[in-house]
Amino acid sequence: MCILPVFPTQQELREMAKEAAAKGVLWKDTSFSTVLRDSIVDVVRRWWLLRILAWESWLSFLFPNVARLPVSQVLHHDPPLVPLVPPASSAAGLSTTTTTPPLTRKRKSLADEQTKSTLTTETAQAPPKKKVQRKVKAPAKPAEEPPSILTPKTELSLMDSEEEFNSPASSDDEPMVDMDSDLSDQDAGTCIDSELDFDDYDEGDMGFESQGNITKKQKLPYEVDFKIYSPEDIQRFQDNEIDEVKHLLGQPPQNSAILLRRFRWNRERLLEKYMEKQMEVLDEAGLKEDESGSSRIQKVPGFVCDICVSDEDDLDTFAMKCGHRFCIECYKHYLATKIKDEGEAARIRCPGQDCNRIVDSKSLDMLVEEDLHARYHELLTRTYVDDLDNLKWCPAPNCKYAVDCKVKNRELSRIVPTVHCDCGHAFCFGCALSEHQPAPCGLVKRWMKKCEDDSETANWISANTKECPKCGSTIEKNGGCNHMTCRKCRNEFCWMCMGVWSEHGTSWYNCNRFEEKSGHDARDAQAKSRQSLERYLHYYNRYANHEQSAKLDKDIYLKTEKKMTQLQTTAGMSWIEVQFLEAASQALQRCRQTLKWTYAFAFYLARNNKTEIFEDNQKDLEMAVENLSEMFEKPVDQLSGLRVEMVDKTSYCNRRRIILLSDTAENLKAGEWEFNVDFN
Amino acid sequence: MALPKRIIKETERLMAEPVPGISAVPHEDNLRYFDVTIDGPSQSPYEQGTFKLELFLPDDYPMTPPKVRFLTKIYHPNIDKLGRICLDVLKSNWSPALQIRTILLSIQALLGAPNPDDPLANDVAKRWKEDQNAAIQTARDWTTQYAKK
Fold first, then answer.
1. CB A440 within 8 A of CB A407
2. Fewest CB atoms within 10 A around its CB: which of A35, A141, A638, A639?
3. Signed CA dihedral, A489, A491, A495, A498: sign only
4. A157: pLDDT confidence band, cut at 50, 70 and 90?
5. Distances from the Cα of A355 to the Cαs of A51, A286, A341, B120, in angstroms?
6. Selected residue with higher pLDDT from A408 and A218
7. Pairing mode, if any, of strands B22-26 and B33-39?
């Protein structure tokens, strides 16, 4: 089958042009140039059509099974018909291509043919010509349209999408695919050219698509949006911010920077204040220009430095706009002290007495020695992150990254914003402790304090021991029957009811005298404390157990690595096959971290309908984790047999964890949980 | 370590044109260590008193402020019982352009204008705010008792 391009006639072309004009597409329909252009197009196209028809029929005769498409493409790659460029709109384009004076139609088309045949004889376009084409194409886009409007719809969509693809926010990639096939089928105009462009688009499209995938990926309820910034990013943000504000305030960049730092990078507040009381703001920031003399190093005759009282004539001195002049050595020394010893950067003041002018970064760069530059800029960057509420440094040691998260402090009772730094550390954005989902920051703080408190020891004593009803000695029952005999006073009593043993009669070892008066008070007093304590211990033991396991993370990890190498040598498994152990180890660590905090969470949770679901989720996860942990501890020779099971269990654990976290986070957000403390 | 020119000049000037009511004499064995006396300003509870202080110029003076301490017992909301002084120019508002004489003048001014809102000696400041007259009387008593000329 042979696909042939259908060339529009001159009449059709003009109609299309009108249509396009009506649709708002730029189109220059001046009488002479259009007529000339159209007729040239017509002749050229007809001539080509004949040639192509001849070729195609020959080819299809010779090679009936070969697809024609590439041939048509090669043949039809008319460079974007140079003479079509309207003279008025593309003077630049014409100057770079063969300029043809407006001759008669015949001569012009001849000339055209010549250029074209030279172009087509070269199989691939020579680089310089490519450039020319592109240059022409850009300014003369509208003029190029007529020859390529073969199927107007397609062409229009090409235009649309071209604009779309130029803008990163484009979201419509469907037409692009259609258009691509349309073009390869039918386009006779700027095929190669557009293909070249499509290469670009394809790249952009891929990037766009992957971006789209990220945003499309379902965000789980317990996840928060965050971004990680490197020190370079932060520097860039500062520069951008300064740049924007500079224009708005009409101040030089270093002054804008000082103002922004002074207003803790709150641009709105700065602008508002600045518009209101410009002089006051400038004065407070030490930027008031009340004395002449710009910030530069100069020699001043008869100058005596107020700091070192040097009065040599050739002394280099420096002063900012405030006019407080000191010798350059003293100035440098002063700044070095401030930066090195006091860790100041953004708010170093002029050394002059009672002067509030802040030393701007330009002056600092000029004066500070090379080795302090890095420190100075680091300090500046630090103030930027410290000043902004949505930025926090990663608390991991030696980590340089900062995290951007939009969660506000007042939302912390509803959200547990866990962020994952690029250094691998996962921490809570709210309190900078390591991740503690699902428990909100307030509960975590309380829980940690409670666990640290020694008061629990006393509680334990009162819960696990009883006092002798007669002499009051503290007794811990360490086994045996309920018939207690106090070591000290030899009082005999029942451990269960605390009543006198003689009253028990014959029902020894089986205290059923619940209502007995003698033991009632003793039981009552202890019951309450014991109950709350047991509750605490229940949760604490489980919490501590998981914490202990979390602390052994490193050991587990090392063990994993050892096992993985062992497996590779003994069981003959490949590296990729033993990765399941690594995955299992990671899942175990992550789940234990979560489980640990579910117990702190549960301790403060007041019972309602939701708690049962929570406890079920918790139980499921815990059982899965313990199962996996058990398998993980198995000797190496059994591990290879357990592979499939472990892989399943690992993904099951991860899934259960997600379910548990999602459930808690959703209910936390909706305020469905009731807590037995007020942690805000 | 050789004494910086600045310290020499300052000392010379303190000797040559002393500030009225203030004297600062360096120790012979340590020229960075000064014995200071300040007369209590008139119209203040410290009038008629002479207060001894010690002043030390640290190594990086004048980049860092001098260390000053009262040796004479004084009842003042901004001076504690160890003689330490709460004064902005000795801390955050220090400027290397300030000098020994300006600092001592500031201290003298502080005696004339106690600031109980920014206290160092809390008990004194509290009394100063609650019963100013009684506090001033105590200050006067202490002056006669400890800072007699």
1. no
2. A638
3. negative
4. very low
5. 86, 8, 21, 26
6. A408
7. antiparallel
Distance from the Cα of A321 to chain B's closest Cα (Å) equals: 17
Minimal CA–CA distance to A189: which of A329, A41, A347?
Answer: A41
Helix (H), strand (E), coil (C) string for chain B:
CCCCHHHHHHHHHHHHCCCCCEEEEECCCCCCEEEEEEECCCCCCCCCEEEEEEEECCCCCCCCCCEEEECCCCCECCECCCCEECCHHHCCCCCCCCCHHHHHHHHHHHHHCCCCCCCCCHHHHHHHHHCHHHHHHHHHHHHHHHCEC
Judge whether A322 and A249 are in contact, CB under 8 Å. no
- A interface residues, B as partner, C-beta within 8 Å: 306-310, 324, 326, 330, 333-334, 337, 349, 351-355
Residue A426 has pLDDT above 70, yes or no: yes
- With tokens 């766009």, the residue in question is A208
For A419, phi and psi rounded to 5 degrees? -120, 155
Could you please report the per-residue DSSP string of A190-214?
A: SHHHHHHHHHHHHHHHHHHHHHHHH
**Chain Cα centroid distance, residue A35:** 56
Average pLDDT over residues A146-156: 40
> Long-range pairs for A630-639 at CB < 8 Å and ≥24 separation?
A631/A584, A632/A556, A632/A581, A632/A584, A632/A585, A632/A588, A636/A563, A636/A566, A636/A567, A636/A570, A636/A571, A637/A570, A637/A571, A639/A563, A639/A567, A639/A571, A639/A581
How far apart CA A677 and CA A562 sit, in angstroms, is 46
A455-464, A487-496, A516-525, B92-101: range with highest mean pLDDT: B92-101
Nearest CA-CA partner of A515 in A502, A497, A500, A495: A497
pLDDT, tens digit (0-9, with 9 covering 90-100), for A653-666: 999 999 999 988 88
Tell me: ipTM over 0.90. Answer: no
Q: Model confidence over A587-639: pLDDT tens digits?
A: 888 888 899 999 988 888 888 888 888 899 999 998 998 888 888 877 777 87
What residues contact A100, with CB distance under 8 A and at least 6 apart?
A82, A83, A108, A111, A112
Residue positions counted in chain B: 149
> How far is CA A35 from each of CA A105, A139, A326, rounded to the nearest angstrom?
10, 21, 78
**DSSP H or E run through A415:** none
| Average pLDDT for A34-47 | 71
Question: Strand, helix or coil at A405?
Answer: strand
pLDDT value for A323: 82
* Type of residue numbered A629: S
Token digits for B81?
């019982």
Across residues A477-486, what is the average pLDDT?
Answer: 73
Other Cβ atoms less than 10 A from the Cβ of B120: the count is: 18
Backbone angles phi, psi at A227, to 5 degrees: -135, 150
Dihedrals phi, psi of B25, to nearest 5 degrees = -120, 125
For chain B, the first-to-last Cα distance in angstroms comes to 37
Do the Cβ atoms of A324 and A350 come closer than 8 Å? yes
Structure tokens at A596: 């640990």
pTM: 0.50
Stated as kind and residue range, the H or E segment containing A493 is strand A492-494
Contact A330 B9 (CB under 8 A): no
Mean pLDDT confidence for B49-55: 93
Q: At what angle do helices A31-62 and A10-22 cross, to 10 degrees?
A: 120
CB A136 within 8 A of CB A84: no
Indicate the Cα dihedral angle A614, A620, A623, A624, nearest 10°: -130
Q: Report how far residue B142's alpha carbon sits from residue B146's, in angstroms, rounded to the nearest whole number.
A: 6
Q: Does the annotation count A481 as an active-site position?
A: yes
Catalytic option among A421, A481, A486, A511: A481
CB atoms within 10 A of CB A102: 11
Chain A residues with CB-CB distance to B6 below 8 A: 307-309
Q: What is the mean pLDDT of residues A547-564?
A: 73
Min Cα–Cα distance to chain B from A294, Å: 20
